[in-house]
Amino acid sequence: MLLPKRPAGRALRWVGAALAAMAATGAGAPALAQGAVKSKHGDWEMRCETPPGATREQCALLQSVAAEDRPNVNLVVIVLKTADGKSRLLRVVAPLGVLLPSGLGLKIDTADIGRAGFVRCLPTGCVAEVVMEDKLVDQLKVGETATFIIFQTPEEGVGIPLALAGFRDGFDKLP
């Protein structure tokens, strides 16, 4: 399921924007990506901007959440289509201090989906990224809750639930 692939393109700007927003708002505050909020879909926001040199607007669906029992542990979840429209990406920005070899786990409702590796760490967080295959998109569209699991030690996983209400509508409206 979660095999990290990194297609080239302007899509990486959204991770940078989310990380910059995390730095600007502080580690404990909700992170917002740059660009205008175009629409809201449940707990998800669609934010759009026209990157320099681009001929059209690029949008991403995002949600920022904190662990229920650890409010200082935040995730920013970003879903977007690459500039060429051929791939759909799921990027998750986790806080510094995560155990990198354990990767990022994902459960949708009670189904264990798998793990994704972290592809890089920046001063404001570590990024896990996967190309979203149709099966994963469909699971996210019909699920109620996605639980992302980060590890701070090999024995200690922290599950961070994310509401999927509105995901289907928002994803279907991504340009």
The CATH homologous superfamily is termed Invasion associated locus B (IalB) protein
Strand proportion, as a percent range, falls in 35-45%
- How many structurally independent domains? 1
How would you sum up the major sheet? 7 strands, antiparallel
**According to CATH, what is the topology?**
Immunoglobulin-like
Helix content range = 10-25%
Strand order of the largest sheet: 1-2-3-4-5-9-8
Q: Can you tell me the residue ranges where pLDDT is under 50 for at least 5 consecutive residues?
A: 1-33
Your description of this structure?
This protein is of the alpha+beta class and 175 residues long. Helices cover 17% and strands 43% of the residues. The protein has helices spanning 12-25, 134-142, 167-172; strands at residues 36-41, 44-49, 58-66, 74-81, 88-94, 104-108, 111-116, 118-122, 125-131, 145-153, 156-163. The longest helix has 14 residues, at 12-25.
